[in-house]
C-alpha cells in the first residue's frame, strides 16, 4: 500500500466514473448517502466511537485513512477497530474507490444508511414499512417464526442492558449501534430451542448466521450470531 499504488487505484476508479460523471454532475441532490460493508467499515475506522446515524464522512477523513494505510504498508498489519479480517482485505480498494467518488463528483460529506438496494425495493413495494425500522421488522418476524418466549427474552434483554450500562464506558461501547445489536441478540438467543435444547447456543447461532435478515449487513449478522453462540458454556 504505497502512495503510488493508491494514486493509481484512485485514478482507475475515476476513469470508470467518467462514463456516468457528466450525468450525475448535472443532477442536484441535498444529501449523499452510503451503505453496505465497505462504506460502513471506512466510517467505523474513521472514528471507533462513531454513531453511524449521526456521523458525516468527509474527504479529510478519507485522506487521513489513506495516509494511515500508506504508513502501515501491509494490509495484514492494519488495525481498524471493529472491521473484521475478511473486510480488511478489500479495505484499501474500497477506500480508493470512495475517494475517487468524493473527488470526481464533488461530494462534501456522506452519511451512512443501514438500508441498501434490497431494502429500498421493499420500501417501494410496501408502504406499511415506510415508518418502521426494517431491522426491527426482521427480528420480530424471526421471533414469531421460531416461537420465541417473549417474556423470557425480555428478562434477558433487560439484564443485558443493565450490564451494558455499567460496562459501556470502560469498554468504549458508547454507540447506539452496539446496544441495538446486543438487544436483538438477547431477544433471539434461544431460537435454537426450535431445533433442540441441547447445544441451544450453537443452533441459535447457526440460524442467525444463515437467516435472511433484511436490513442487516454481513458483519452485523455475523456479530448477532457470535453473541448468541458464546452466551453460555465453553466455546468448543
Automatic annotation (TrEMBL):
Protein origin, superkingdom: Bacteria
Domain Ppx/GppA phosphatase N-terminal: 3-126
Record key words, sorted: Coiled coil
Ranges in coiled-coil conformation: 3-30
Name of the protein described by the UniProt record: Exopolyphosphatase
Domain Ppx/GppA phosphatase C-terminal: 134-234
